[in-house]
Amino acid sequence: MIVQDEEEPFLQSANFLRTWSKCMGQRCEIEGVALSLDRAPPPLASLPSQSSVTPAAPQPATKTVPKKVAGDAYVNTVLAIAKVASSIGSAVHAIQNPPPAPSKAPAVAPTPPAPKRPVVPPFDIQDIPGAMRKLGMPMSATLMERWFSGQLNYSLSDADERAEINQSGFPYPPNMVDTATIMMAWVLGFRRAKNAFDTLTESLMLETPRARGILVNKLTPYKTRQSIQPWLECKGDLQRFHEEFQFQLIDVNASWSERIAVQMYEEMSNNGVPDDLTGALGAFNFYATIAEATFNQQAGTATVTRVAIYVKDHYTFSTTPGNVSQYLGHWNKSHVAIQHLHAAAMAVNAQLSDAPVRIGKGADNIFYPVRNSDFRAWQQKHGRGGDFIIYSDRIWVTLRRPITINL
Fold this sequence. Notes:
Largest sheet: 7 strands, mixed
Distance between the termini: 74 Å
Helix content: 25-40%
Number of helices: 14
Shape: elongated
């Protein structure tokens, strides 16, 4: 059964031009049709693929053919005559005793054909990375595929996520820390990211009162040294480097759902579909960490001469109990569409129907609403799906005006 509401406005991606096109959609409830979570997970990314052993093909059974044994000629002739006589007797009997005519079967009313059900191509949550690639978002697709192929890993609360503690109460395992996928050169290819990077590396940004106070706390334990290079001090341990020597940050971008909410209240004809940076990292930070510092024991000062700048982000589908799960748009295998009513409902912690929506004609124009909670449900169904931490590579910046602080 299909239930269709009145048409409602949507914005659908026009992939070639990377813009939104305004369109109308109808909520359609088709029995048995919903976002699928059924497809089996991909192989674990951290495990080597197991070689498959092809079982031996079954051998055909040997058929025994009995040998012909030559019989007595006289006996064979008698048996042949008897066989012919029996056949003639059977034929005469059939002519003298014909079988009764078959009774005419009663007429049966034809069964009416079953009503045609709409043929709807299945859409599985694991089809979203393919749609992202068609939207020009290959990095977003790569990170999502990594999440699907990971071991089960997530945090039970925002506090645990900040502390990087998983559902079992343990720190995220090492294979849930990705240091190879996101490169600073790629991030800085987006203008807003480059602007934030330039702002962070300005001396005024690095010398805020809060940043100077953090530097005092970070460097005081080393005040008896002549100099320090924290990367060597941490023996290349990126997480320790971040925890012990990071002192300033700047935020970039907004999450996918936040971008949707903002764009729905702007003139969308002039704005494009969220780009690969939004899809991959959402809201993220550039961090500044001490890369080199010298100490003057006589003056009681420390001077930071170099810093390291990098991205750190959590790739997660957080869902806060008691709050409506984040709306990530309506998806199919080629496009994404967004609706302002869903964004407005999120603002007041309300949730609209999550029925599929038909935009245009044809079964392939059905779009499925997707939320963070769908990814969490997939995790529970399959016991897979790993939230992970992203670190980019580092850019080492020599400060034109070193930062000197009193210890």
